[in-house]
Amino acid sequence: MREPLATAVAAARSHGALGTGALATAAQAVPLPDLIDAFAATTDDAFYWEQPAQEFGLLALGATASIEVAGPGRFAEAASWWREIVERASLATPSATPFAAGGFAFAESPEVADGVWSAWPRGAWVAPAVVLERRGAMSAVQLQVCEAEAMDSVQALADAALRAQPSRAATAPPGISLRDDPGHTWWDDSLRSVLEAIAAGDLRKQVLARRVCAQAEASIDPAQVLRALRSRFPSATIFAVRRGGATFLGASPEELVGLRGTAIEAAALAGTSRGTGDGRWLLDDPKERSEHAFVVEALRERLAPICGRLDAPGVPQLMTLPDLSHLYTPVSGELLQPRGLLSLVESLHPTPAVGAVPRAADRSRELEPFDRGWYAGPVGWARGDSGGEGDAVVALRSALVWENHAALYAGCGIVPGSDPEIEWREARLKMEAVLGALGVPADRDAGARG
Predict the structure, then answer these.
(1) CATH number assigned to the domain comprising residue 100
(2) pLDDT value at position 12?
């Protein structure tokens, strides 16, 4: 692997670009270990992404180049930075298209001081040093450097990942205690405030989130949590972002946007029921259909100006997951002109599935006395820029894990007819994906309808 990378480095140096931020990259087909085993075998900052049902997975390690962003222009700033990286890159092999991955907080700036997310930026987009990729039976490793002197350390990181051994099955950490932060009274008061704003005509829909803090008697192993999520939710996107000593992870059922050349796809997901056999009532429930329609309408409005073709069925489908069913509408289209993934993310985030209608009237930061952090924000990856490929999901069914702590988040769409107790139970129901991966028994009183 060193020889192709050296060729790319030499090409970049001959153009006088190496050492000035230009990326040299090379890729090679190699057998890969299990990606979670490789994640566990390394300690560098990492980005993990796996879609088991699609036999697709990525593990990005280290940082050859990166940008941290905040404020109203954060997506555009990250997109501009990445566009320049791609334009100046030196490719040793045709398959070595520049790769980046990362994520963004739900909000552009924190509304409240929250120690849980204090070390996390409002957005980070990273060109990693090493990328392991598996697509069906094919697998490859890609190396990226900006300095010739970094070649040895990047190769060593790749070697450590490729030598990863299968891990023994681990048990969940013992003695996990849970604490609602904030509690039930806050939820009831906030939800009624939202309903009053809706009745006054200030809002049409508002997603309200709650947080549960978990503490174990021993350290929580993020790799073990990921294994449990992957086993139980093969149709979801299992993701993790590791920064320092903390890992943000989850099993998201909701694609924000996928890009393949000029073809795009997105998903509207809203309306929830417990169980796999009783969810069809969602299709006939006016409240759930109304909540779902807001998301579909927003995707159409935001994508129509940039698409020559846009398809969205008029009637939602039922998405069935372990213990949950959702109303689901797939959206697909063809862009009028090539765009990068981050440009599309900027157009779509946040959708009414996690925000408000109208978008500018979102009161979540006013009502929620905690920082959502990266929960409900976009997490994803990109190869190349305009005309390239990439995917971003809405970071749902997620938690931030550090040492023996975890902070879990879930939200509910509040519309006319929402009941505080039912919505409270629905939010807990959504947390059960990660709680189960932590070894916490399911709460069978979380509510059958929500």
Answers:
(1) 3.60.120.10
(2) 47
